[in-house]
Amino acid sequence: MSDLLRHISTSCFGASYLLAFGCELARTRWPLPSLRWAALVLGGIGLFTHSVFLAVHHPSPAAAYGATLAVAWVLAVFYLYGSLHAPRRAWAVFVLPMVLGLVALAVFAVSPADKTVVLGDKLWAALHGVLVLLAAVGVSVGCIASVMYLIQSDRLRRKRPPLGRMNLLSLERLEAMNRRAVNAAFPLLTLGLLLGGVLLRQYHGLADNWLSLKVLGTVGLWGVFGVLLYLRYSATVSGRRLAWLTIGTFGLMLAVLLAAHPFANEPRAQASGAPTEGSP
Amino acid sequence: MNLRAIGCNFRTAAVELREKLAFDAPKQEAAVKALAVGDGCEAVLLSTCNRVELYVSRPLGAAPFDLAAAATFLAGVHGVPADRVRPLLYEHADDHAVRHLSRVSASLDSLIVGEGQIAGQVKQAFELAQSLGTTGPLLNTLFPHALRVAKRVRTETGIAHGHISVSSVAVDYVRQVFDHFHDKTVLVIGAGKMARLTLKHLQELNPKRILVTNRSPAKAEEVAAGCGGTAVPWEQLDSALAEADIALSTTGANEPIMPRPRFERHVRPKRHGSTLVVLDIAVPRDFDPLIHDGDRVFVFNIDDLTRVREKTLGTRRKHVAPAEAIVDAEVKRFTDDWKRRKSGPVIKELFGEADRVRAEVLAPLMTKLNGKLTPQEREAIEIAFRQFQNKLLHGPIAALKDAAPHDAGEVTLLEAVRKLFNLRG
Predict the structure, then answer these.
(1) What are phi and psi of B178, to 5 degrees?
(2) Of B161, B196, B230, at which residue does a domain stop?
(3) ipTM over 0.95
(4) Do B158 and A31 touch (CB under 8 A)?
(5) pLDDT tens track for A159-188
(6) Which residues in chain B touch residue A165, judged by CB atoms under 8 angstroms apart?
(7) Is B270 on the interface with A (CB under 8 A)?
(8) Alpha carbon of A163: minimum distance to chain B alpha carbons (Å)
(9) Residues B283 and B352 occupy one common structural domain
(10) Which one of B17, B64, B166, B424 is most buried, counting C-beta atoms within 10 A?
(11) Alpha carbon A213 to its chain's center
């Protein structure tokens, strides 16, 4: 049995999510109950195999590979929850492409060298990874809400029939979803960054690494977050602009997530005796 | 089956005549009871503002309930001459009656195709008849089946998608912008008839408060009193609009009451970026359409709402053919199942009779051969008799099963089998 589970690969859950997405897309044209059930079953299989994969291989959430797969897993849970509780909303059509995109990025865009990360103290490193991961989930949810907001707003701007084939949430709900996601992500990202900075200084020497793309990008991301929050609460900015900015933040987050860790497989850290985080 | 669906609808009878033939609840109860008891049949009476229909099933072999009987019955109940009623009536028999009920329930025979009320009305009519004991095996199977067909049509096609009335479409737009209404302010500008209807729909959303403004303070007070709102002086229109989340405008003004410069100068700056939905159902329009920015201010006027209504109707029409296909398939399934159900008991009886005869013949034979046969030989003889019986019955049973789904000769064949094999049935 454990051998069988060990054979589950990213292709298994990637294919399941892809088929579920196909069914969900078809459902926007032909609203058949059978398509809904097929999508739910395929999505459920995808989530199960995804969970088994993470449990068996436990890729490090601090590394790009593990982080993208973990964010994809959380979003897949959101997808199934949303599809079960609000079957008439076109929730899946927006969440599943992001899940698929993250799985594809993990498989095709992450260099094998970045699958192993040395982060220093194991407990603090794990906490840093989880905080950044949760912030990434927040930004991803904000991005999904923003894409839905832009489509819904465009429909209303053009005065398209209110109950079209794709049943979306109201603008107010989408804006609230975006706001909550970003509000929750900002403190998590701040804490994660502070912890990362301390670990970097303690185990790897901040002076050597602060100019790396990853560190600079992360600091930039934090700055963009600050701007996003400022615009939301201290200036009168249109909902569409905020949505575009959130999508931009998500893009930056992906770039940061995929950038090679400055201390991936770093011989100096290994020599110093720091423990190694996840090696799938 | 011996089923008839007889009645009149908006196509065959003018509204004045439909009104005369319509049943209120007590009258409907008395009528359906009188029809079933007096005629010794199963009966359901469907009465809506667009149709009055009788679904009557008599026992097989009895003369079917016909147009003349229906006309006499309706004329008697309503005190209208039967010869005035009869030309308004249409009649559907057996499979066609099943099809008609399915189409009616699925709203394919409605004035507005896809409207959602009719399935509920069919259900009510059936439940009333059931509670009065005027339904039997056929109607107890047929009506739930027709309601299932209606559900299939609604869920598997887009025939019921969207709203048709202008006020419902207006509220649909509001729901696309706002999620909850307990903290929202509705501003009613003017006091037209259309506004009251739309306001009724908006009131169902339970907004936090309703403000009403009108050039005539008395009219504003009147509308405010009717909806539990607060009257606001006409001079404070700008500030009331700055506070509102939803504005419903329906004045009789000849010029727009809110041109764009006025809105941009006196209203937008006070709103601090909050969202406003304007439902401008006045003709001529009250709000300059250029105020609509599609981000923070949404203006929907009567043309926009009517366009959606027409589009929805057009979309529904596209779904009629798939819906009819579902109805056809379901009608065939129902009639086939029903006919099989009728032949099932005869087949069972035939087997029972053959078993009885076999046992009757076999028992004396076994007594006669007692002691001369080994247990294996006894078993071989019993098996041979059973095989003989099965082979003999195979032909008649296959003929009954084959005949079941078709109309012609069904009753005759069932009766012939009963007579040939001496079944009591």
Answers:
(1) -105, 150
(2) B161
(3) no
(4) yes
(5) 887 766 678 889 999 999 998 998 898 899
(6) 158
(7) no
(8) 6
(9) no
(10) B166
(11) 20
User: Is B49 considered catalytic here?
Assistant: yes
Convert the pLDDT of each residue in A27-81 to its tens digit.
Answer: 887 777 888 899 999 999 999 999 999 888 878 776 778 888 888 999 999 899 9
B307 in the same domain as B186 = yes
Name the interface residues of A facing B (CB cutoff 8 Å).
30-33, 152-159, 161-163, 165, 168-173, 176, 236-240
Average pLDDT, chain B: 87
What pLDDT does residue B164 have?
Answer: 75
Show residues of chain A in contact with B311, CB under 8 Å. 161
Of B99, B130, B161, the last residue of a domain is: B161
Catalytic, out of B8, B41, B49, B227: B49
Closest CA to A280 of A138, A149, A114: A114
With an 8 Å Cβ cutoff, is B296 touching chain A?
Answer: yes
Question: Which structural domain, as residue segments, surrounds residue B125?
Answer: 3-161
Using DSSP's 3-state secondary structure scheme, residue B115 falls into coil
Q: With contact defined as beta carbons under 8 Å apart, do A171 and B245 qualify? A: no
Between B161, B177, B307, which is nearest A170 by CB?
B177
pLDDT at B420: 78
Q: Which residue of B has its CA nearest to A32?
A: B156
Alpha helices for B133-161 (secondary structure H): 137-156
- Give domain status of residue B329, yes or no: no
In this structure, what token pair is assigned to residue B232?
């606001």
Same domain, B236 and B366: no
The CATH number for B67's domain is: 3.30.460.30
By C-alpha distance, which of B400, B276, B300, B406 is closest to B350? B400
Residues B153 and B175 in one domain: no
| Same domain assignment for residues B240 and B353 | no
Cβ contact A71:A78 at 8 Å:
no
Number of domains within chain B? 3
Q: The domain spanning residue B265 has which CATH number?
A: 3.40.50.720
- Give yes or no: residues B69 and B155 share one domain: yes
B242 is a domain residue: yes
Quick check: B158 contacting A, CB < 8 Å? yes
What token pair was written down for A160? Answer: 């398209």
Most B-contacting residue of A163, A168, A240 (CB-CB within 10 A), to test interface: A163
Q: Hey, are the CB atoms on A170 and B295 less than 8 Å from each other? A: no
Both B355 and B306 in one domain: the answer is no
Domain presence at residue B327: no
Taking the C-alpha atoms of residue A173 and residue A48, their distance in angstroms, rounded to an integer, is 30
Residues 47-86 of B with CB under 8 A from A: none
pLDDT level of residue A257 (50, 70, 90 thresholds)? confident
Whether residue B308 lies within 8 A of chain A, CB to CB, comes out as: yes
- Asked if residue B328 is part of any domain, the answer here is no
Is residue B25 scored above 80 in pLDDT?
yes
Positive or negative CA dihedral for A164, A168, A169, A170?
negative
Residue B198 token pair: 């739309």
Q: Is the pLDDT of residue B143 over 90?
A: yes
Amino acid B2: pLDDT:
85
Residues of chain B contacting residue A176, judged by C-beta atoms under 8 Å apart: 179
Shared domain check, B155 and B170: no
- Residue A214: exposed, middle, or buried by beta-carbon count in 10 A (0-12, 13-18, 19+)? buried
Report yes or no: B348 at the A interface, CB cutoff 8 Å: no
Residue among B60, B139, B105 nearest B407 (CA)? B60
pLDDT at site A260: 59
Q: Look at residue A270 in the predicted model and tell me its pLDDT.
A: 42
| pLDDT recorded at residue A267 | 43
pTM value surpassing 0.90: no
pLDDT digits (tens, 9 = 90+) for B333-387: 998 888 777 777 778 788 888 888 888 888 888 888 887 888 888 888 888 888 8
Whether B136 contacts chain A with CB within 8 A: no
Q: Quick one: average pLDDT of B1-12?
A: 90
Measured torsion, CA atoms of residues A122, A128, A132, A133, in degrees rounded to the nearest 10: 30
